[in-house]
Amino acid sequence: MQNNSSIDGDVPNTFDRSNSLPRQLRSLQWLRAIGAMSVVYFHAAIQVRHLKVGVVAPVIGETGVDIFFVLSGFIMWVTTQNSHVSPRKFFARRIQRIVPLYWLLTIAVALCAIAMPHLLRSTRFDALHVLASLSFIPWPNLAAVPGTSTYLSPIIVPGWTLNLEMTFYLLYACCLPLREGRRVASITILITALYVAGLVGARNHSIASFYGNSIIFEFLMGILLGAYLIPFLRFSKALAWALLAISIVTLAFIESAAPDLPRALKFGCPAFIAIAAAVNLERRSAVPDLPALVKLGDASYSIYLSHIIVLAGLRMAVRFLGIDGSPGTAYVFIAIALLASAIVGLLIHEYIEKPLSRIKLGLGGLNNKPRNTTPQH
Asked: Which of 58, 146, 179, 197 has its CA 20 to 30 A from that of 126?
């Protein structure tokens, strides 16, 4: 089985005991499953508002992305700690894992935008936009309103997170040759510089403004957790479970309570606490075996990328059946959206994502296994 622990679904969730962590971290798979399904719910609730059913479902769940970002920083650190992976090899592995499925779905949506543009609400075909999407470069989306959160989104709108992920991987790769203490300091400086550049870009109305989002500091929060706080995760099982539960609930509802806080504080801190509590539970062998959640965690990358397509199909089906004005449609739509997105994501993971991940892209050094990892399959 493939055990993964970042938004792109690549890094194994097994670690070397020199990190004072258990060999298996199943709870991180749970968090990835929760994160992916939260995002599905978030977008399904938004779709409900377009169905004219007279029922408004709570629009929560976008914070699944914040779980992914903190988790990504944490995983990048613990899987490269005490190892000597080169920047080239590290970045090549990230490309090997992220690119094939993302490119395949991006091209599919772009072709749909050409052949059946009326089916898509969030995308309009533009050749430069497609090229920028394939290159993980933020670019104006002609279907979005300037100044909105989706204006600099790729063809597959949730792919905006991958644009940030790839930038983080590139910065982190540049810091790998440094000693671990200097590595933390260097990545802190680079992420801060990127954020400042984004703020400057916002004043100039340039695409650099994409990076002026405090969410990028959540990668750093994950790194700090892995680099400095693991030895101190010694609280009781009861406290760990309480912290995990409180942090998940906080992630769901804090937006309405503190809408003006920077995202890294508002969402990043609860995500940080959730991951810290989960790791503490693993160290105390207090994590039950829940294969369904682990499997969803394995497939979270496929679920995350494909769910927008699933939701678009469901929306069209509802309108074709003429039931978009029925009040009961809202909750049925969300329930079916969650189930269908999970099933489609699992199928894509098993029959497309995993086979694609075995394709060698000729990037060099991909057959050499780093320390602190286990085989992908």
From this structure: 197
Question: What would the mean pLDDT of 108-127 be, rounded to a whole number?
Answer: 85
d(CA 250, CA 272): 12
What own/partner pairs with CB < 8 Å and gap ≥ 24 does 254-262 have?
A: 254/63, 255/60, 255/62, 255/63, 262/214
In a domain, 372, yes or no: no
For residues 127 and 106, the answer to whether their CB atoms sit within 8 Å is: no
1 falls within a domain: no
Q: State the pTM of this model.
A: 0.89
- The DSSP result for 213-225, as a single string, is -GGGHHHHHHHHI
Residue 36 DSSP label: H
Q: How confident is the model at residue 11, as a pLDDT?
A: 44
Averaged over 150-170, what is the pLDDT?
95
Q: At 326, list the tokens.
A: 């029925």
11 within domain boundaries:
no
Tokens of 231: 């030895």
Rounded distance between C-alpha atoms, residue 271 and residue 281, angstroms: 15
* pLDDT at 8 (0 to 100): 63
Structural domain harbouring 347: 17-357
344 Cα distance to chain centroid:
18
337: tokens are: 């959206």
pLDDT tens-place string over residues 69-87: 999 999 999 999 888 889 9
Distance CA 33, CA 331 (A): 21
**Domain membership flag for residue 377:** no
**Closest C-alpha to 290, from 31, 11, 7, 26:** 26
